[in-house]
Amino acid sequence: MSFKSDNCGPAHPAIIEALTTANQGFAPSYGTDDLTARTEARLRDIFEAPEASVHLVATGTAANSLALSTLTQPWQTIFCTPLAHIHTDECHAPEFYTGGAKLSLVGEGDKMTPEALQTAIEGWTLGDVHCSQRGPVALTQVTEMGRVYSLEELAALTQTAARYDLPVHLDGARFANALVALDCTPAEMTWKAGIDAVSFGGTKNGCLGVEAVIFFNPAKAWEFELRRKRAAHLFSKHRFLAAQMLAYLTDDLWLDMARAANAKAARLAEGLRGVPDCVFLAEPQANMIFATLPRATHQRLMRGGAHYGLNQGPLDTGAPDEPLSMRLVCDWSIPEDAIDHFVTLAKGD
Amino acid sequence: MSFKSDNCGPAHPAIIEALTTANQGFAPSYGTDDLTARTEARLRDIFEAPEASVHLVATGTAANSLALSTLTQPWQTIFCTPLAHIHTDECHAPEFYTGGAKLSLVGEGDKMTPEALQTAIEGWTLGDVHCSQRGPVALTQVTEMGRVYSLEELAALTQTAARYDLPVHLDGARFANALVALDCTPAEMTWKAGIDAVSFGGTKNGCLGVEAVIFFNPAKAWEFELRRKRAAHLFSKHRFLAAQMLAYLTDDLWLDMARAANAKAARLAEGLRGVPDCVFLAEPQANMIFATLPRATHQRLMRGGAHYGLNQGPLDTGAPDEPLSMRLVCDWSIPEDAIDHFVTLAKGD
Amino acid sequence: MSFKSDNCGPAHPAIIEALTTANQGFAPSYGTDDLTARTEARLRDIFEAPEASVHLVATGTAANSLALSTLTQPWQTIFCTPLAHIHTDECHAPEFYTGGAKLSLVGEGDKMTPEALQTAIEGWTLGDVHCSQRGPVALTQVTEMGRVYSLEELAALTQTAARYDLPVHLDGARFANALVALDCTPAEMTWKAGIDAVSFGGTKNGCLGVEAVIFFNPAKAWEFELRRKRAAHLFSKHRFLAAQMLAYLTDDLWLDMARAANAKAARLAEGLRGVPDCVFLAEPQANMIFATLPRATHQRLMRGGAHYGLNQGPLDTGAPDEPLSMRLVCDWSIPEDAIDHFVTLAKGD
Amino acid sequence: MSFKSDNCGPAHPAIIEALTTANQGFAPSYGTDDLTARTEARLRDIFEAPEASVHLVATGTAANSLALSTLTQPWQTIFCTPLAHIHTDECHAPEFYTGGAKLSLVGEGDKMTPEALQTAIEGWTLGDVHCSQRGPVALTQVTEMGRVYSLEELAALTQTAARYDLPVHLDGARFANALVALDCTPAEMTWKAGIDAVSFGGTKNGCLGVEAVIFFNPAKAWEFELRRKRAAHLFSKHRFLAAQMLAYLTDDLWLDMARAANAKAARLAEGLRGVPDCVFLAEPQANMIFATLPRATHQRLMRGGAHYGLNQGPLDTGAPDEPLSMRLVCDWSIPEDAIDHFVTLAKGD
């Protein structure tokens, strides 16, 4: 009964099977193999971006850091929210990869508004050699609070960035979950909405460990290749990254898994609405739920074997009715009876 | 008929199978799972090093760069040979990870001698703020020319380093191939010979992509963890790194594959001794052969479908009898008849 | 009539004269000369810190960045206010020198409180490999709004830092101005108040360009020397840095200049209190004044030849009575009649 | 009697005087003052380069590192000789400023040949993502052994670089000494010979501490400004850098001092030719002499009060007739009788 994270769940059997299939005889290394070429072509196809440069890496932090460092000079600042994964959960990988860029925090929550973005951008004076120079805007879709930017919201933000000639990166660790939530195409959620580069996640949605970095303008493709190798993220047996990604994209497996994960989170949210004193911190739109429950409810859940992220503590002392916040994540694999059991436990019936 | 590299061959089926086995239900992420703990314990056991800190990464360059950066200050120089992989094949990953350390080249070839090492060390004056400060010694075992340091050679080098209080790192991308060539224990080839840290390779010897970094003194374990995360090399679904490594170490699979690879290279070398004008550039001691053949022989081999590294060219023009050097690598999987066919082609019978 | 900055004013003639005096014959280079040794001894004396390590550099940003990088690991965060010079005016020098450390902003203004500092520190979870690790606290004295921390305020902040085992750095670009404002000793304002390292400014207070970095615990003195050289901040003709600093510290010249600057700012503030619609943004405690005046008043001042920092604009359009903020800085040299003339102009009599 | 280094000698009185003259009233800071503008114009004039971008810094290592980092990507290698100051004497400043570029050593001595340069360039395969990418060529004029590249030699090297599309940087710490030795114009020794950027030294030739970085193509001027500020090398009281440089360039002072220094070195060399067992290691062409003398001669010189660089030791033990190498440097100020006395001492008459 684990709602800890979508990186705790298993890979989809079809992904594992693809590894076995790919494991036949010899293949050129370092991404020069056929399977990699086919995978890259498939991604370009799905994104309706025949010119895009496509690169595979094994971790989401690698995708974000390498993509951002390709877009950012060391004396520039990246604009992101205070909850952005790149700020809170990557142990300075963006700062390391960029050679010392700064992250300027926009607004207060998980989503930025065009107004807050503009204020942040103008917070650094253009042409002033003393201060941080303006750099890329970094968005996360699904956000770190489980919400999804609408296409209109994305367009408004990228238009703001464009007014200042700033590129926009999208951290799509949960790209598929957002896509099915919006029911749009990959192109619509990215380059058609003004996104320049995207970290297209596979790991959290049923792969073992693979992400694609996609630049819709391929001008910096070779620089990215050098950055990836220099950072030790170029796999020698690259076919095993490609095999995962290609299986992921075959027969809509990626969309099916994302739909399953979102549906399960919706079922869980529906159940939680009936739990006394459950307060949602954000409207769940994909596969994550942020809410508070009384301490006593958490104690009951944990005693009952539930695993999930408890964001504030301590659990064992303090008033039983004090609300403590939690993060619940559903992956494609979690059984519906686990969800129902969780709700039952929470209700304490 | 590929002798291109041991990273072009397939993973061993038992390694793939271990992924399937590990892919059951939920597991804690980022290396906090049981499988990882068991794998680390197994490595400590094999190395007879109960105190050692053990860390898994997915690429050899990550292992080397992270290990070396933990041992090196940015103003220090790493001592390595001019053929060292860290110098010639990692696109400045060591310089990137260390924040600008230098690589000082020792001697002329793939193996360093204590005398050459001493000369290189003394080339940088102790206590002089203007010059490079003396840092770790980096050895490769199997060397980049396919040779193996004897235990006596290793000890002589580490003793030289110790006289200057310098730590020693071993790039063991082909650790198993060297080990079975020397017929010694992992402890004998590392800490008992004065090695402080080792990159213990799995990828080139039948895994998909996994290496272990081992520090025999665990004082910097937490720093390494931070460096690994900051570099985006901490896997969320870490069990899939652990599963590979544990299967690799089970029932001597790693040693069996290394023995197979070395035996195949020996068979190939034996065959090449009968090929006209074949000149060995180094005595093959593990699974790699460096030799020259006349241009015409190479042409015949390549027309016949052989794949391998041709280190100088061009192939198509110039005298047919001009010797061109090649690298031939045998992995555990290459069939014996491919070897024999290669020799037959080379002989041109 | 320049109130633009204390780095726009002239050096004191005695400082220039010291250069001439120092310019006799040959002297060992790179800080190994007698004059440097005497200067370092003088600083240790003034700070009552016989064990301290003392290092001269030419710019304040070099002093801050080198000092902080000696105290900060790349994966750590520095805690400073959002107005800190290291955040707003050093073009990522701290990030560059530290190899990618982060700056976590404490509170809202120019001074931090122990409570805000504690909140910021606890914002990064101890022992979590994913997030920023807790690093040094960086204070500025005089603050960027012209205020001065009392000794009690400093002690409360350093005690908070100490509870988390974090070192404290003091940016003393205007050290002397703060010291005479508090009427205390250098020791009282630094190590007796819990400060670990200080950037002791000379440039803004009558030197051409010299600052001292002082570590009260000299354990990292050699590392600092390497960092300074690696950053190209070790002067070959080092005697010319030392000569400035020694003259600065001779016969209380540094204190006299600071007292003069502060007194002039006090006279200016006193005058401004009589200017219609002048609103102080912070109580002036040293040699800087932050206040707002109506746009029309600014227009009159600038037409009259006044130079100073106008922090928001535009000057030429908009309502004449709209308040616009300014920064006025007095150095030791500004004539009293310039001050009085400024006030007269402002009053518009 | 100091022949230790030209950075041990005094500044020319006219340079000091210029500081006094510049020290009048208020001036805009950070290089926006008139004196700086005039100095930059003067440099453009002297170099017959009306489009060039000109930037002042205080140390030679800053000039080299900032210039090279502007020309070099972190994954590129700089080609220089094994004796290059940037390799042997800057404590990794080039590696630090470039973010981890490599220095590839060309040839064996202080001067590179086009053939050796070509070999070094081709040592790194074009388009191979694994290896160092080809970057700028870095020459030193006067070389680190006191020799001077002829204009033909410079042109041959820059033509080699140009065939590979690589820019060329000239470390001109002793630019003036080389210029008067060649009796050519600054333009002839730089852009007319194919040089792209130059570190134009003042410090070693009679200034306190000032160097100019000149890019003949100004495309990266703003990037350089950001790099200089980020590295803490932008002086607030910038007029004091400009004043030195402008005085240096006025009335041919720079050329007069260089001619004096070279003439004195020639006189010293002439004298040494009469010293028994004195062997020159390189033909002196500017203001430095590299030669060997028997140990006993060194002992006599040092007992007699001579200061100079003894490059190998120990002085006190070993055979009296063993040759030990030395470096003797003459600056503009050293008296002729000191030279003559040195020779007399060396002769042991």
UniProtKB/TrEMBL annotation, chains A, B, C, D:
Q: Where is the Aromatic amino acid beta-eliminating lyase/threonine aldolase domain?
A: 3-290
Q: How does it assemble?
A: Homotetramer.
Keywords, ordered alphabetically: Pyridoxal phosphate
Under Pfam families, the record lists:
Beta_elim_lyase
Among InterPro entries, the record links this protein to: ArAA_b-elim_lyase/Thr_aldolase, PyrdxlP-dep_Trfase, PyrdxlP-dep_Trfase_major, PyrdxlP-dep_Trfase_small
Keyword Aminoacyl-tRNA synthetase listed: no
Q: Which biological processes are named by the entry's GO terms?
A: amino acid metabolic process
Q: GO molecular-function annotation terms? A: lyase activity
Q: Which family does it belong to?
A: Belongs to the threonine aldolase family.
Provide the species name: Roseovarius bejariae
Query: Keyword Isomerase: yes or no?
Result: no
Q: What is this protein called?
A: Low specificity L-threonine aldolase
Report the Gene3D superfamilies cross-referenced here.
Answer: Aspartate Aminotransferase, domain 1, Type I PLP-dependent aspartate aminotransferase-like (Major domain)
Instruction: Tell me which stretches of the chain form a coiled coil.
Output: none
Q: Which cofactor does it need?
A: pyridoxal 5'-phosphate
